[in-house]
Amino acid sequence: MGKLKYLAVAASLVVDFTSAQDVDYAQFVNPFIGSEGAIRGYAYGGGDVFVGGAVPFGMVKLGLDTYEEPVNQSALNGGWTPQGFVTGVSLMHVSGTGGGPKYGFPAQMPLTSIDGDVNLLDNRTYWQKREGDDLASVGYFRTKFESGITVELSASRHAGMHHYTYPAASGKHVLVDFSHYLPHPTRSWDSQFYTGGEIELQPNSGTYTGYTSIAGGWCIGAPVTVYVCGEFDTPPDTGKAFKGKNTFPVSRHCRSFNNATTPSPTFTGNSARSGPLNDRVGAVFSWNNVTEVKSRVGISFMSVDKACAYKDSELPSWSINDTMHAARDEWNRDVFSKIRVDTSEKANKTRLALLYSSLYFMHLIPSERIGENPLWESDEPYFDDIYTMWDLFRNQVSLWHLIQPSYYESMLRALIDMFRHEGWLPDGRSGNYNGLVQGGSNADNVLADAYVKGLRGNINWTDGYAAVKKDAEVLPYFDENPVDPQGSLKEGRSALDDWIPLGYVSADRNSRAVSKSVEYSLNDFAVSQIAACEAPEDRDLYLQRSAGWQLSWDPSATARNFSGFVMPRFADGTFHKTYNITNCGDCNWSDESYEGTAFEYSFVIPHDVARVIDLMGGPGHFESRLDYVFQPNTSGVDLGVNGLGITTINNVANEPDFQTPYLYNYLNKQWKSVERSRQLANDFYFNTSNGIPGNSDAGALNCWLVWQMLGLYPIVTTPVYLLESPWFSDINITVNRDKTLRIRADGLDDDGGKQGYYVQSVKINGQEWNKNWFEHEDAGGIMTEGGEILFTLGAEQQVWESGDVPPSPGHIVLDVGNGM
Ligand SMILES: *[C@@H]1O[C@H](CO)[C@@H](O)[C@H](O)[C@H]1NC(C)=O
Ligand SMILES: *[C@@H]1O[C@H](CO)[C@@H](O)[C@H](O)[C@H]1NC(C)=O
Ligand SMILES: *[C@@H]1O[C@H](CO)[C@@H](O)[C@H](O)[C@H]1NC(C)=O
Ligand SMILES: *[C@@H]1O[C@H](CO)[C@@H](O)[C@H](O)[C@H]1NC(C)=O
Ligand SMILES: *[C@@H]1O[C@H](CO)[C@@H](O)[C@H](O)[C@H]1NC(C)=O
Ligand SMILES: *[C@@H]1O[C@H](CO)[C@@H](O)[C@H](O)[C@H]1NC(C)=O
Ligand SMILES: *[C@@H]1O[C@H](CO)[C@@H](O)[C@H](O)[C@H]1NC(C)=O
Ligand SMILES: *[C@@H]1O[C@H](CO)[C@@H](O)[C@H](O)[C@H]1NC(C)=O
Ligand SMILES: *[C@@H]1O[C@H](CO)[C@@H](O)[C@H](O)[C@H]1NC(C)=O
Ligand SMILES: *[C@@H]1O[C@H](CO)[C@@H](O)[C@H](O)[C@H]1NC(C)=O
Ligand SMILES: *[C@@H]1O[C@H](CO)[C@@H](O)[C@H](O)[C@H]1NC(C)=O
Ligand SMILES: *[C@@H]1O[C@H](CO)[C@@H](O)[C@H](O)[C@H]1NC(C)=O
């Protein structure tokens, strides 16, 4: 399509990092990876990523909002689409999410005309196609509208910098539309909707202030109110506030005038407020004698004053170049330089792009909102856009643990503070509102992962344990989400009414029985891991419950010549015998298994792989089943956007299967883990706009690739890391704030398809290492104090490991009978 281009170096923005320590890793980032899906030119099935200006975990992510048709080939979640019409430029976005879009507000839109056919209340009358390629680099975005306006964007933590360049002969206007948000073009139940706002123009100045409130979206959240403080570098010649009837088509919530002509705005002088009917409000500014208009806009969840203060303090100059440089410096300092590889001429630039872009995408959300929590007063930090734990717990939190210790500790404290003040840990959260729980209460896994790796800091683990114990014990109230008539999707574990008395989640009383049984098992293992020190008397109870998945194991269930699977089981103890093991149907909220088949979920027991191996018939059977799930054309399910182009049962594009390719380590056949996982990475990850195999899921897919490139894989809720095979011969990672973990790969020889990447031997801190795994504190604290992991690689597929297989710390043997 040629609609996008990332700039390594753009003419006016030459980055000059001369000193050797200050490598500009940002130059390797391709911010478009995941912006497009399998159908070129459309977002559908792609990463749903945000494209625009942002700092790491920034509250502001400034970028275009678009409307792309046909809507069945689009996805508006990140705002940007390859060729959608631009409807506005807004400050808040999420990245990589599915479901109903969130945010896309507050927005501005530069226009060359506001007369004639243009109706400020109808975006279709002014929306813009783009010309040429959009440009994006870390902290910077540029596009050109068909109208001739060039838009450049950059951002600080709580403010956005816009720079509009107009054609000399055209009109120069900026529309501020407080009723703008990212809509859901194909359904209303989880679409956002506008619930009111207020705008005020300061006469004879370039400043406007106010707020907008938008509700709904993915988690069906309560209204989010954002205060806005915008300023233009040149005071406009005219500025007028307006209001108009709220006729958005999401008629479930608003008065609808489907058949009426779209209303026109009423101009109201220097201010406009929504009033009782949630009228739309906005303003339009016009200039006569300038060709460039710059605008800085601060936002806050607390007050207009705070929004103005952010604008002034974070964007001290009107220069987009300065703003971009500040953002880029922060990314280099706080993110990219945490993982340092050779960037010299001889380095493989594709790999640099994959590594640093992946790091970029896994630091866009959650949004750090310290001092920006409107819901309660607390000295604890605050984060939002945890979207979702279901995605993040698999391995992303474990990387943050290593390379972002400050942010990560803050996130955990924020989670526990949410429990303190709202009663529950979130499994997902956006717009200051919990939801949606896809399976278990996976914040439990996150807390346990940190806990077993010794993270204490200022985390109150007494409350942390109380929080996970509540998840394990208290049925959340029913939130009446329209997509699940059986239990809460907001927080907690909606099927505890089965889980506690039966030990498994039944398929007749609850939705998603298979995947919930599997997830609750790991959740309870996680609880037992924290209990081990915080409440030793509870440990055994939760450890025992963590074997619940075995009660859902039907040894006589057979598919593709393999026997024994986690299956839907009814409350009376019988199994759903005719359940299709390779096809979960829509694999949706109301189905028996969520986003994965019984075939896949049968492997997803990281705390007790040993028992899985037994139940599958021993190591030989386990291995052939594992081999089978990677064979092409075996998938029996339409994976939809969660796996376009994938034909194997194993779906590397979706979270449940992230760890499965690495399970050969549990057979001491590590070379096969290396082979499978590398092949998946090579087949599905590219430095192209459609270069990830599905929604990036807040960076979860990207982070899977980072671990792959480092040659490690963490087993979440335990201190174990599997050893795999690095993609670089020398990697320095800053862990635990200021220690260096060096990973070297002697003999790596995989240029141009060569296969010199199989492990021949490993040394950790000089010690010969005969196991294909190690623990966080092994070898004198390799992950806390740093040190060196030395891989010797070669082309030979070797069983080099002779030590114990990775542990199964939740090992329990329940009698599974022979299937009823
Ligand atoms: C979208 O709809 C169009 C027209 O109905 C159809 O041709 C196209 O195949 C659909 N695309 C997808 C991805 O389903
Ligand atoms: C644009 O207008 C359409 C049609 O009224 C509406 O569905 C949509 O929500 C509006 N806003 C955006 C940002 O697309
Ligand atoms: C009113 O809406 C209905 C249903 O969308 C449509 O069939 C009809 O043609 C519309 N009438 C007018 C006058 O636009
Ligand atoms: C625009 O420029 C013209 C010519 O320099 C000048 O006469 C006019 O006053 C200016 N208008 C404004 C609003 O500054
Ligand atoms: C861009 O900003 C950087 C850092 O603020 C500065 O060193 C450089 O001179 C600026 N370049 C231009 C063209 O303004
Ligand atoms: C890693 O650190 C070591 C020790 O400081 C240094 O010699 C080596 O060049 C570094 N490697 C990379 C890729 O930065
Ligand atoms: C943890 O928080 C609770 C209140 O939520 C408090 O009573 C307790 O003292 C705190 N513990 C520590 C170690 O600060
Ligand atoms: C999942 O279910 C929801 C609610 O019924 C529906 O809106 C959505 O389209 C479904 N998604 C898929 C992929 O089937
Ligand atoms: C199952 O085993 C039979 C007999 O060994 C063989 O013919 C058949 O191809 C196998 N089916 C699959 C799906 O592997
Ligand atoms: C998988 O199926 C596709 C489409 O039917 C076919 O082209 C391809 O050769 C098959 N691959 C294998 C390994 O059987
Ligand atoms: C299960 O679904 C697959 C794929 O849709 C289908 O080929 C198979 O016949 C189904 N199996 C059963 C037992 O219904
Ligand atoms: C560079 O890395 C990419 C991605 O791993 C790989 O496909 C390509 O073959 C490598 N190029 C060379 C020259 O090794």
From TrEMBL:
One of its GO terms (cellular component) is cytosol. The keyword Ribosomal protein does not apply. GO terms for molecular function: carbohydrate binding; peptide-N4-(N-acetyl-beta-glucosaminyl)asparagine amidase activity. Residues 306-794 form the Glycosyl hydrolase family domain. Keywords: Signal. The keyword Plastid does not apply. Residues 1-20 form the signal peptide. Residues 28-300 form the Glycosyl hydrolase family 92 N-terminal domain. One of its GO terms (biological process) is carbohydrate metabolic process. This is Glycoside hydrolase family 92 protein. It comes from Curvularia kusanoi (Cochliobolus kusanoi).
